[in-house]
Amino acid sequence: MQFLWKYVDDLVGKGLPAYEIGRLLFYASASMVPLALPLAVLLSSIMTIGSLGEQYELTSLKSSGISLLRIIAPLMIVSVFISIAAFLFANYVLPVANLKFGSLLYDIRQQRPAVNIRQGIFYNDIDGYSIRVGNKDADNQTIHNILIYDHSSGRGNDYVITAKDGKMFMTDDKLFLVLQLFNGKQFQEMSPPSGKKSKDYEQLRIGFKEWKKVFDLSEFSLNRTDENLFKDNYQMQNLGQLRKSMDTLQLELDRTFKEAAAFSATYFSFKRTDFDTIKMTTDTMRIAAVPDSFSIYNRALASARNIKGYLAISAKNVKYKSEVLRKFEIEWHRKFSLSFACFILFLIGAPLGAIIKKGGFGLPFVVSVFFFVIFYMLSIMGEKMAKEGVLTPFEGMWFSTLILMPVSVFLVYKASVDSVLFNVDAYYGIIKQKLLQLPFLRKYQSKNN
Asked: Given Cys at both, which of 27, 74, 198, 215 links 177, Cβ 3.0 to 4.6 Å?
C-alpha cells in the first residue's frame, strides 16, 4: 500500500503490462524485509514462549530446575542465525534489488503516457503531429470529423488532413497506430523552387475515399537504461563498495581543506614597512617616507573579497560532500544495526511471552506491535539526527538498539524471577490492599464487621 500511494502518479496512464508492475512491486518489497523481519522475530518469540506459559509447560520446566535462559537457549541460537541471514540479505540481496528497482522506476518515469486520443481535444503527444477527433463511437474505434496537422517538415502547418469518418486501431505488436480515414481531403503547401524567394506558395489539394495514416509508437515503449549508471547511489552498494565510496569522499574532503589552506596562505603574508627617514640631496634635509594608504586599502579589500569568495565555494562543497558521506556511513551501519535488532527484539519477546503467558494472535500481537512501534520511532529519530549531524552515524543508527538493550536485560531478569510485571490481577490486588489501608475505608470495614 505504501508503494502504491507513493508511486501511483508514475504508473497511471502509462499502459504498463502487468509483469512490469509485478517486477516493480517485487523489487520494492525487498526493502521491507529488514523492517518486517525484526517484527516477525518479536511476534513469533512472544507467541512461542507465551504458548508454553499458557499450557503450563513453562511452569513444569521451571519446577524441574531448568532456568528460563536454558529454556530459550535453542531459540537464541535460531535468532542468531536469523540475524546473520538478515545481514547477508541486507549486504548482498538488498543493494541489487534497490538497483533494479531504481533503474526500472526511472525508466517508467521517463516513459510517455499511453496513447489516449479523446474526442474534441487535440492530442499532441506524438512528435510532429496534432490530432483531433470530433466524436468517437462506443466501440472506441469508429471516429468522426478527424483533423490532423502534420508538423514533421518543420515548416509549421503545411500539411493538413481532414476526414468525415474513420477507424482507429493499433497493430498487434502495439508499435504502430493506424488511422483508416474515409471521405477526406489533404492540403499541402508546396515549397518554392530552389533559388527563388517568394511569399506565395503553391497548395496541393487531394481528395480521397480511403486513406491510411500510420504513426510510429516505438517512442512510447519502455526503454531500459543501463543499470551501471545508478551504482553510485549509497542504497545500491554493499559493504565493500560503501567503504570504497567513503574513502573516496574522505580523500576529496581532505584535498578540499588542503587546497583552501594553500590558497589562503598566499593572502596571509605580513611585511614590515620601514618608516625611517630617507636621505635626500643633502645630509641635513630628511623627509619621512609614508606609504600610499589608499592603494594599500584597495589591495587589502580585493584580497579579502577573493578569499571570501573562494572559501564560500569551498564551504558549500565541504557541506555537500559531508552530507553525502554521512549518508554512506548511515547505510554502512544500517546493515549491522537492523540485523542485530532481530536478536535484541527476540530478547524482548521471549521474556514478554514468559511473563504474559498468552499465545495466539491476541495479546501477543498487541504487545509486539507496541514494542515494534517504539523501536521504529527510535530508529527513525536516530537516523534523522544522524543525517542532520546532531549525532554521529554510529550513534544515530545504533540509537534504538542501545536504548532497547537495557530493556531486554530488565525483561529477561523479570521473567527469570517469575515477575508479575504484566499480570493485571496482581496489580488489582496491590491496589485493593493499598485502598483498604486508607483510614475511612478501614473504619467502614470495621463497622460492617
From this structure: 215
What digits encode the pLDDT tens for the residues 372-396?
889 989 999 999 999 888 899 999 9
From the CA atom positions of the chain, what is the Rg in Å? 39
Alpha helices in 93-164 (DSSP H): 94-110
Quick check: 386 and 402 in contact, CB under 8 A?
A: no
CB count within 10 Å of CB 258 equals 10
Backbone dihedral region for residue 360 (phi beyond 0: left; psi -120 to 50: alpha; all else: beta): left
Percent of the chain with pLDDT over 70: 78
Nearest Cα neighbor of 378 from 407, 353, 409 is: 407
DSSP calls for 279-290: E-SSSS-EEE--
Residue 246 CB: number of other CB atoms within 10 A?
A: 20
Q: What are phi and psi of 123, to 5 degrees?
A: -105, 120
Q: Measured between alpha carbons, how far is 231 from 244 in angstroms, rounded to an integer?
A: 13
d(CA 372, CA 368): 6
What string of DSSP letters covers 2-26?
Answer: HHHHHHHHHHTTS---HHHHHHHHH
**In the chain, domain spans:** 2-111+332-416, 129-220, 250-327, 419-449
What is residue 393's predicted lDDT score, i.e. its pLDDT? 92
pLDDT tens sequence across 3-26: 777 777 767 666 677 888 888 888
| Residue 58, C-beta contacts closer than 8 angstroms, at least 6 positions apart | 49, 52, 71, 354, 357
9 dihedral zone (left: phi>0; alpha: psi -120 to 50; beta): alpha
Mean pLDDT of the residues in the chain: 79
> Which amino acid is residue 408, in one-letter code?
S
Report yes or no: 408 and 348 within 8 Å, Cβ to Cβ.
yes
Q: Cell numbers for 215, please give them.
A: 504513426
pTM score over 0.90: no
pLDDT tens across 300-317, in order?
Answer: 788 888 888 888 888 999
Split at pLDDT 50, 70, 90, the class of 283 is very low
Is residue 326 exposed (0-12), middle (13-18) or buried (19+ Cβ within 10 Å)? buried
